[in-house]
Each structure stands twice: as structure tokens, then as C-alpha cells.
Specification:
The protein has one domain (2-145): Nucleoside Triphosphate Pyrophosphohydrolase (Alpha-Beta Complex). It is 41% helix and 14% strand. The protein has helices at residues 23-34, 68-79, 106-110, 118-128, 134-157, and strands spanning 2-4, 9-10, 45-51, 57-62, 88-91. Strand 1 (2-4) and strand 2 form a beta hairpin. It is globular. It comes from Rhipidura dahli.
Length: 158
């Protein structure tokens, strides 16, 4: 994932004008500007989501398994992209574990703020790609909701 200029976490990507580009060609053009060395195909497609609001956007989500070497290459390319330091503050690895305190790792990561459908896309990918066992994923999501409820309860009693 990426830390964006506005402090929100999101996935690399951008807008594609379907009049000039196929979805994958446009996505690879946008990714090439930010990551340089990754190409996605129709086989990497996972899902699409419609975001409601003043600007309706269809967010198409792609995922691809990488070797550690490929990931390192992408991380290095991202630091040298034209958007680094302006639109994108850096790459962020998602922790795929939960610490013994049941908050460290993935639960703390999920407590961050995400842009648009990025959090839903992340949870969907972790589940559908079997990257985190479903029960552990549910526990991580539940752990992020407990502190908020406790803070609201305390504020209500004050």
C-alpha cells in the first residue's frame, strides 16, 4: 500500500480514460509512473466497487503475487518515481500477523485512515487470497472496533 499526501492509506493507481486506453493498459500506464516495473493483466483482476457521493467512481482492484526480489525492486522504483514526496509519501507493508496483545500488527494497521474503498479492498484481498486465516482477520477487524466503542462509552459517562 501507499501513504498518500493527505495521510490516508491507499493502493497505487489512478484514473483511466476508457476512450483512449483499455482498463489494463491505462492501469499499467499509471502504475508505470509510480512504480515503474510492474505490469498487471486481466488475470490479476479481483473485483470492482462503486463509490457513491458527488463523484461516482468505479474502483477496479487488481492483485498480483510477487517474489521478495520483485517487491524490493518495486519499493526502490517507488522512491524514485515522479510522485514520491508530492502525491505519495512512501510504500507501506501491511503486517499479516497479530501480536500477543491482540492489537499490535494487523489490528493497529487497520485502525489507520484509508482512502475510498481501500480498506474494504485490503480486507477482501486478504480473505480471498488466503493471506490471513478468516478467523484471524475477523479478530483483527473486531479489535479495531473495540477501542472506539470504549472511548465513546467513557465520553458518554463524563
Amino acid at each position: 500500500m501507499q501513504m498518500r499526501f493527505d495521510g490516508l492509506l491507499g493502493f497505487p493507481g489512478g484514473f483511466v480514460d476508457r476512450r483512449y486506453w483499455s482498463l489494463e493498459d491505462g492501469l499499467n500506464r499509471v502504475l508505470g509512473l509510480g512504480l515503474g516495473c510492474v505490469r498487471l493483466t486481466e488475470a490479476d483482476y479481483l473485483c470492482s466497487h462503486l463509490t457513491e457521493g458527488p463523484h461516482r467512481v468505479v474502483a477496479h482492484f487488481y492483485a498480483r503475487q510477487l517474489t521478495l526480489e520483485e517487491l524490493h525492486t518495486i519499493e526502490i522504483s517507488a522512491v524514485h518515481s515522479r510522485d514520491h514526496g508530492m502525491e505519495v509519501m512512501g510504500m507501506v507493508r501491511v503486517p499479516l500477523y497479530t501480536q500477543k496483545d491482540r492489537m499490535g500488527g494487523l489490528p493497529n494497521f487497520l485502525a489507520n485512515s484509508f482512502v475510498g474503498t481501500a480498506k474494504f479492498q485490503l480486507l477482501f484481498a486478504l480473505k480471498i487470497l488466503n493471506m490471513v486465516p478468516e478467523e484471524k482477520l475477523a479478530e483483527a477487524v473486531a479489535a479495531t472496533q473495540r477501542p472506539k466503542k470504549a472511548a465513546i462509552d467513557q465520553a458518554g459517562g463524563a
